[in-house]
Amino acid sequence: MKTLEVQASEPYNVHIGAGVFGLFSQVYGELLGQADKIAVIVDEKVAALHLDKLMKELDGLPVLTKVIPSGEQAKSVDVFMDCQTFLLTEGFSRKSVLIAFGGGATGDVVGFVASTFMRGIPYIQVPTTILAHDSAVGGKTAINHPQGKNMVGTFYQPAAVVYETSLLTSLPPEQVRSGMAEVIKHAFISNEGWLEELLTAGSFSDMTEEVLADHLEKGILVKAAIVSEDEREGSVRKFLNFGHTLAHALEGYWGYGNITHGEAVVLGMAYALVLSRHDKLAAYLTWAEQNDYPLGRLRETDFTELLPYMKKDKKSSDGQLNFVMLEQTGQPFMQTIDEQVATAAYGELKSLIKGMIA
User: Fold this and answer.
1) β-strands 123-127, 321-325: how paired?
2) Are the beta carbons of 113 and 151 closer than 8 angstroms?
């Protein structure tokens, strides 16, 4: 087990490894023991697979469970309000604690519920996907709006992140792909050697649990360092959005849940690498094709259809297109890109993809 500290306005620990559920009694017994009620809000797929494991560790505590939809469908106003109604109906108070048990979407919506219920109560992130190594750390909470992803939310840090890596063995291939997108993003913005290791590692199915845990630890360290420097995204935290400007537009245009977040991020990073003229573009596209990311879907979509979503991106202002750029690995920066340049780069990426998978 590894423990990493996030130096936010309210510091907390991220525990990662096999057997970390024991920390609920060993480390967080006082927090949970003082709660008048505890709600485990869990997505429906995780409930079927793993809820019994978590509930065993919470035995004897005043725990109620609330099952919500899996994936991006959870990040809606309806689910948010349903959770609030559940807490009010069951008599939760300012002395209560929430536990978010699921993937990144579950953590996002439960964190938002925790930050707003009675003006804020403690919550613990218990991520169950690779993708959530990114989303569970840093205190960003949100739900989606039809006009944009994560447009309604707060910055609200968890009391802890308890990351039981043994649960990752049950992930389907598309969720492994989704999660590894954020892992390689962290490598791109931080470390050339680590990036090279990922690009040449081969298929995800060949990765052992120990190797995966090592990559996740590295990713969390990158995220924690940036959050510690810039908790509310006033400066360097924006770099964590590498690839996300186009990714969020694709998710909005194609419909939330019709592509995983990580798959969209992989496409978005490919586009950002074209804009940046990064020397790893060809190797990255080969890596993405070898690991079955849906590069071909970009050929179906015109840039003009994505522009309205991109102009509403949180990094944009006055309709300008602002991107995290990366001319050299580990040296991200923000830049405003002219619309004509952005359009041409998208066309160039589509041509490169056509040449690869024609």
Assistant:
1) unpaired
2) no
- Nearest CA to 127 out of 24, 213, 46, 192 is that of 46
* Segment 180-195, tens digit of pLDDT: 999 999 999 999 999 9
Has this prediction a pTM greater than 0.90? yes
Question: Where in 34-180 does DSSP place strands (E)?
Answer: 38-43, 63-68, 97-102, 123-127, 140-145, 148-155, 160-164
Write out the DSSP string of 181-197: HHHHHHHHTT-HHHHHH
CA distances from 204 to 181, 201, 207, 211, 282 (A): 11, 8, 5, 11, 19
Angle between helical axes of 192-199 and 281-290 (0-180°, round to 10) = 40
Going by their DSSP bridges, the two strands 160-164 and 12-17 should be labelled as parallel
Close Cβ partners of 29 (under 8 Å, ≥ 6 residues apart): none
Residues taking part in catalysis: 119, 140, 182, 223, 233, 237, 241, 244, 248, 261
**Distance (Å, whole) CA 279 – CA 294:** 22
> Parallel, antiparallel, or unpaired: how do β-strands 123-127 and 148-155 relate?
unpaired
Q: What is the pLDDT of residues 64-77, one digit of tens each?
A: 999 999 999 999 99
**What amino acid is encoded at 93 in this protein?**
S
Residue 351's identity, in one-letter code, is S
Task: For residue 206, give every residue at least 6 positions away whose Cβ sits within 8 Å of its Cβ, in sequence order, or none.
Answer: none
Backbone region of residue 149 per phi and psi (left: phi > 0; alpha: psi in -120 to 50; beta: other values): beta
On whether the CB atoms of residues 266 and 288 are closer than 8 A, the answer is: yes
* Count, residues in the chain: 358
Question: For residue range 96-105, what is the model confidence (pLDDT) as tens digits?
Answer: 999 999 999 9
- Residue 103 to residue 337: CA distance in whole angstroms: 33
Q: Read off the tokens for 118.
A: 């009675």
Do 83 and 41 meet the contact criterion of CB atoms below 8 Å apart?
A: yes
